[in-house]
Amino acid sequence: MSSSLLEVRDLKIEATAYPPGEAPRDITIVEGVSFKVEKGKVLGLIGESGAGKSTIGLSSMAYGRGGVRITGGEVFVNGNDILKAGPAGLRALRGHEVTYVAQSAAAAFNPAKKLMEQVIETTLHHGLMTRAEAEERAVSLFARLGLPKPESIGNRYPHQVSGGQLQRVMTAMALCPKPDLVVFDEPTTALDVTTQIEVLAAIKEAIADTGVAALYITHDLAVVAQVADHILVLQGGQMIEYGTIDHIINSPSEPYTQALVSVRSINHHEKSGGAPVLSVRDVTARYRGTKFDVLKNITLDLPEAQTLAIVGESGSGKSTLARVITGLLPPSSGEITFDGRVLPADFEARTRDDLREVQMIYQMADVAMNPRQTVGTIIGRPLEFYFGLRGDAKKQRVQELLDEIEMGEGYIHRYPAELSGGQKQRVCIARALAAKPKVIICDEVTSALDPLVADGILKLLLDLQKRENVAYLFITHDLATVRAIADSIAVMYQGRVVRYGGKTEVLSPPFDDYTDLLLSSVPEMELGWLERTIANRKMAAAGN
Amino acid sequence: MHPVIKLVAQRLALGLLLLFAASVLIFIGTQILPGDVAQSILGQSATPQSLANLRAELGLDVPAPVRYFNWLAGIMHGDLGKALTNGQDIATAMGKRLGNTLFLASCAAVIAVPAAILLGLIAVRYQGRWPDRVISTITLATVSVPEFLLGYIAVYFLSVQLRWFPSLATVYDGMTFGEKLYAVSMPVLVLVLVVLGHMMRMTRAAILNVMQSAYVETAELKGLRKFTIIARHAFPNAIAPVVNVVMINLAYLVVGVVVVEVVFVYPGMGQYLVDHVSKRDVPVVQACGLVFAAVYIGLNLVADVVSILANPRLRHPK
ipTM of this predicted complex? Predict the structure, then answer.
């Protein structure tokens, strides 16, 4: 028995792995994890991908995602060991005592049903309220979570509301049956930074108002610092450190936690001046068959061997700009110049040498490589294509490139599936470098990576820039990355450049409204940041 | 205008265009068939003079494009022409046959469609366990066995050995509805077995595909029963592929049952067509082809429209 709302003792979770070409084997995902959550408290589960945070979170509902099995330990909810509850017992627990908020609300809502129907479904299913009562509660939750038109938003379908709104509706769905515990699984990770702060504030307020306890799962320590009372740091399925939020943020004892807290070790000194190697001149572009300009009068210069960061939220046009520069989307007006000469608008009209000079690295390294080719083939392809290298000469150059990305000889015969996320991105960098380009366009190259891994990639990119004199056009939504790597910055909003200049200049006041909103929305790793920021905004709004 | 109305209107227009194209193909196809009606009608008694006379009488001496437009104009007025061999009005003769075929098809569909969907849901509910395996194995067997063999097996056991049902599905005017149902029970059984497997397997696959979605996990974490999850959360999102396979099978029930009709000597469209093909009776073949094309296009049109209506993004735009 246990007097806590949730008590996990010595949890062990296993799954079956199917390594390519080998017999399936059982692997341990989580081992020796114990913790408690008291009524009305919030515990943050933090760690990088593969740390087992979501798996542990879902174990509080006795649920294993995919072939994951809880094979040891005990999980008490309100004093009952839920691992011993049968199917009927679990159905009574899920959606009533414990509810769940998923990372991607857009995928977690049934596209064929109205929101209200889904929000009150559990409440009705568990017979907790009448339909009218449940709808009334849902509307009041919508209002409390700051959703527009709380009375009627329930009549909409999931695709008819925005991602940030959907995440709030999902929170309302979790709170509707008056649960004792809500599991928040990275609820703001998929959102833009300016949306994240709103959703975060709404979630925090709702938790405080309803007195519900919560497990808050995230990889972002700065985010969890705003909502949690306690934090459990996980790595590779093991507990690293457990403590109050103050202890973890301000005086962590374990080296791993210290590394997480002080991530971003890069000190990059801003370069300025220099002749532009790539210029975008008054470019306006739209997609075929649409009447809407995605880019409006963009003018930018990328100096040789420097980094220009393009910052903006989803839909700001930053990736479209990359498509225009590479010639995938010819602009409706304006031009791209390289080394002082105008590049043909369409990539098909460009010479092979033009193509070689501008390379690209993508966000999703997995899908940017052919899974059936080895690392050697992947990196060797541009060597063959652009320089006609064959045989030993090619092999030697591939080896040099692998050395440059700090991966040894052993990787040449490996397939992408046998590499970690960071290694995959390194191979993509090597492939881009193989063409000896003057410009590499990096499209959100660190967004899918854990902070420590991303840090390593950024360091590598800076090193390579020094050695190879390559210029980066660095597209990202992450301002911390920009601070780490950029020489100059362009802030994009709704297809326009709203702020453009050297890094220090762009990141120093006075700000325009949008840049101010963007910068002030990035969570900082200090307690009370969220309240302060929200209060500042309210004051500013009242002042106007 | 609501985008759904526009989409549906587009589909309808496209269907009409397709039907028109089909009529051209049917006409050309029947023109390049080897053999000559006049020759086959007159047989041994044909002389050059009598052949020329008969051709003129049948309108075969007019150029093909002119005949096509005459034919098309007739169809627009509901006149499918007269059979060359016996001079009967095709619309009247075929109407009865088509009625019989539709009766047989409806009987089979009324049983097969709900059964296929229900069995598909059950197979998903018990995926990998014995109910799923039994259903999947049996339906695989019925899909794999040729339909005429299925027919003869059924005749051997149910008609010859057990003497439960008649082996000849003879229907005529004046039979009561019950008598008719009893008469067609054997071909209905065979047709149900043939189409059930295909529809059930596609339903199962379509729902299993949806079962991988994040919203099904959400439903599971709401503590809903497995069957509720399948029926309420998975099935509505699998309607489009299910309707498509259902419509293809319904089309088969009308258009493709000729073998089963022959096995049970059922007076339907299939038999009618085959009879007249062997007699080189071109107008009848053309009329049958056109009706089949219309049924096929019509049912697929219904599938398209249902798929559009089942998509909440199209039904409720932003």
Answer: 0.77
Q: Which of A110, A113, A215 to mutate against chain B (most B CBs within 10 Å)?
A: A110
Token pair in block for residue B39: 């020759």
Nearest-10 Cα torsion for A253, A257, A261, A267: 100
Within 13 Å of residue B114, how many CA atoms lie on the same side as its CB?
A: 4
Contacts of B225 in chain A (CB under 8 A): 91
Q: Which CATH superfamily is domain B90-282 in?
A: MetI-like (1.10.3720.10)
pTM for this model (two decimals): 0.79
Measured between CA atoms, how close is A515 to chain B, in angstroms? 29
pLDDT digits (tens, 9 = 90+) for A368-413: 899 899 999 999 999 999 999 888 999 999 999 998 888 877 788 8
Min distance A459 CA to chain B CA atoms (Å):
36
CATH 3.40.50.300 fits A276-508, yes or no: yes
Architecture of the A6-35+55-207 domain: 3-Layer(aba) Sandwich (3.40)
User: Where exactly are the structural domains of chain A?
Assistant: 6-35+55-207, 276-508
Window 26-45 of A: residues touching B by CB (8 A cutoff) are none
- B226-235 pLDDT tens trace: 989 998 999 9
Of A63, A91, A112, the CB nearest to B312: A112
Report CA-CA distances (Å) from B17 to A456, B21, B25.
Answer: 61, 6, 13
Give the SS3 label for residue A499: strand
The distance of A82 to chain B (nearest Cα, Å) reads: 13
CA distance A1 to A257: 32
